[in-house]
Design a protein that fits this description.
By secondary structure, the protein is α/β, with parallel strands linked by helices. It has 2 domains: about 5-155 and about 330-345, Glycogen Phosphorylase B (Rossmann fold, 3-Layer(aba) Sandwich); about 170-330, Glycogen Phosphorylase B (Rossmann fold, 3-Layer(aba) Sandwich), CATH 3.40.50.2000. The chain has helices at about 15-30, 60-70, 90-95, 115-120, 130-140, 185-200, 215-225, 240-245, 260-270, 300-310, 315-330, 335-345; strands at about 5-10, 30-35, 45, 50-55, 75-80, 95-100, 125, 150, 170-175, 205-210, 230-235, 250-255, 275, 290-295. The strands form 2 sheets. Strands 3-4-2-1-5-6-7-8 form an 8-stranded mixed sheet, with helices on both faces. A 6-stranded parallel sheet has the order 11-10-9-12-13-14, with helices on both faces. Helix 9 links the parallel strand 12 (about 250-255) and strand 13 (about 275). The longest helix is centred in the last third of the chain and has 18 residues, at about 315-330.
């Protein structure tokens, strides 16, 4: 096991995928010092790790990185967001080993000079999906000669025991609703719902999450006369989210811009079939076996697949069972930690 390990991350306690990876890192290594940009300074320990929160203040984060580099020579430094990569250069000067993780859209734009220098100096680059790796390389051709490993995410067991789904045919989407994340597919699902209702009159679209774009989406659904056929739950706790997976017939997030998509794993863990767009979702969903992959922007195909899964409950249940088996074989928390430690300790 590598020691000591320093983790540079935007968040540690959030509900986003980057925070989830940060927490998984803590369980993969024995000694971890966490420098967390957006965590409050009062958070000093978490899951056995020492935490230094910067309260969202980048100068404080940079000073914490300089101080840690001075007292932690030859550390293994895991950079959990490319925007924080420049802070790792101080560790490199002290003989540290740098490991940079490429998640999603933040790595799909041309890097700044300091970010590029830090990633060039990194001993290992790890992408959370082949899709994210390819998008990174396309936007940053300077790294064309660098090897980028792929390390798929994993998640732990569900907190709520599995229960049979509701008899009402229901599609579920879970995700933030913000102006910057309209690519997740909420609009597409609302827009196809009249056609879904024409084929499955009792069908319900359940939307879990919150954000500054939620009101617009609610108004859109109301203006289309969808009434109780589109339900917005708002932000709910983890146990309630698990119950939403369990009551759903199918999980769908037709997003073409996910770096990975932890929500697909959550659905598979709950033995629910999935519908996603070609991209990172193709590395999670086995098309035609555990769910369906549709081309980005293909509303007709999306509509047809949603209708099919809602109509044919037996097929959807069988796909969900195979999805759970796939989760257990490839995408558990233990699988992720094994993949990550193998790469970091090579």
């Amino acid at each position: 096991m590598v020691a000591p390990v320093v983790l540079l991350t935007p968040n540690l306690t959030g509900h986003d995928g980057i925070s989830a990876v940060a927490r998984l890192v803590l369980g993969a290594f024995d000694r971890v010092l966490v420098l967390a940009l957006h965590e409050p300074a009062k958070l000093t320990t978490f899951d056995g790790a020492t935490v230094r929160g910067a309260g969202g203040r980048r100068p404080r984060f940079a000073r914490a990185a300089l101080a840690a580099a001075a007292t932690t020579p030859r550390a293994t430094v895991i950079v959990n967001h490319v925007h924080l990569a420049p802070a790792a250069l101080a560790f490199a000067l002290r003989g540290g080993t740098l490991v940079s993780i490429l998640h999603g859209i933040e790595a799909w734009t041309p890097l700044t000079g300091l970010q590029r220098a830090a990633l060039m100096r990194s001993d290992r680059l790890i992408a959370v999906s082949a899709f994210s790796r390819d998008r990174f390389l396309a936007e940053n051709p300077q790294f064309a000669g660098r090897h980028v490993d792929v390390c798929h995410h994993g998640i732990g067991p569900a907190a709520v025991p599995d229960t049979p789904s509701d008899r009402t045919p229901a599609a579920l989407i879970v995700g933030r609703m913000t102006a910057d994340e309209r690519y997740k597919g909420h609009d597409a699902l609302i827009e196809i719902w009249p056609a879904v209702l024409a084929a499955v009159p009792e069908a319900v679209l359940r939307i879990v999450g919150d954000g500054d774009d939620r009101r617009r989406l609610e108004q859109k659904a109301a203006a289309m006369g969808l009434g109780g056929h589109v339900v917005f739950t708002g932000g709910i706790d983890d146990d309630a989210v698990q119950r939403e997976y369990q009551r759903a017939t199918v999980f769908t997030m037709p997003s073409p811009r996910e770096g990975f998509g932890l929500v697909f794993l959550e659905a598979m863990r709950a033995a629910r079939s999935c519908i996603g767009c070609r991209g990172a979702a193709s590395e999670i969903i086995a098309d035609g076996d555990t769910g369906w992959i549709v081309e980005p922007g293909d509303r007709d195909r999306l509509t047809e697949r949603v209708i099919r899964t809602l109509r044919d409950r037996s097929e959807s249940v069988a796909m969900g069972a195979r999805g759970r088996a796939r989760y257990l074989q490839h995408f558990t928390e233990a699988h992720f930690r094994q993949r990550l430690t193998a790469l970091v300790t090579q």
